[in-house]
Specification:
By secondary structure, the chain is of the alpha/beta class. The chain is built from five helices and nine strands. Strands 3-2-1-4-5 form a five-stranded mixed beta sheet, with helices on both faces. It has a two-stranded antiparallel ribbon with strand order 6-9. It has a two-stranded antiparallel ribbon with strand order 7-8. Helix 1 runs antiparallel to helix 2 and helix 4 runs parallel beside helix 5.
Length: 177
């Protein structure tokens, strides 16, 4: 069983990876699904909270269909709650078995909501193997703002400065280990 947790926070719209972090992540997930056979796959999307987009299934066409709709627009709360996605994955796996459980977390690693590493340690204790895929660059990029489907500048902080988002490799390495 493979649960894929996809970060759909607004930082994933950054374009330091072309065409954007989110689009590149979706391409990766499509490739992963295409390489599967005899596996069940599920999809969790997360930003300020985690949501089960699709429970575990062997229907790869359905998985790709659910993946297409993943965007910041479908989650009510922004932020990045990686730990919540790990907890939701643990609830979604078969509780009777402690083997053959993999979670692939695809994110830029900017975690704002919870202690994801301690939650990952608990998941590992329950037999969940966590893989992380970092999307973004360590140099970072501004977070674009879209209006009516078109880019309309960049997100600003309270001081009027452009918000920059950077790949947090340390967080991702800690989660995976």
């Amino acid at each position: 069983d493979v649960m894929i947790a996809l970060d759909v926070s607004k930082s994933m719209l950054a374009e330091d990876i072309k065409p954007s972090r989110l689009d590149r992540a979706k391409q990766l997930i499509n490739s992963l699904i295409e390489s599967m056979s005899n596996d069940r796959v599920g999809l969790i999307i997360f930003a300020g909270n985690a949501y089960l987009q699709m429970p575990l299934t062997a229907d790869y066409s359905a998985a790709k269909l659910f993946l297409q709709s993943a965007s910041p627009d479908i989650v009510p709360t922004q932020g990045t709650a990686i730990g919540a996605s790990i907890e939701l994955a643990m609830e979604s796996f078969d509780q009777e078995s402690n083997q053959y459980k993999a979670l692939v977390v695809i994110t830029d690693g900017e975690n704002h909501e919870d202690d994801a590493v301690s939650i990952a340690e608990r998941a590992a204790g329950e037999g969940v193997v966590i893989h992380t895929v970092g999307v973004g660059s360590e140099d970072g990029a501004p977070v674009p703002v879209f209006q009516n489907g078109r880019r309309n500048g960049y997100m600003m902080d309270r001081n009027g400065e452009v918000v920059m988002t950077k790949l947090n490799t340390t967080m991702l390495e800690n989660l995976a280990s």
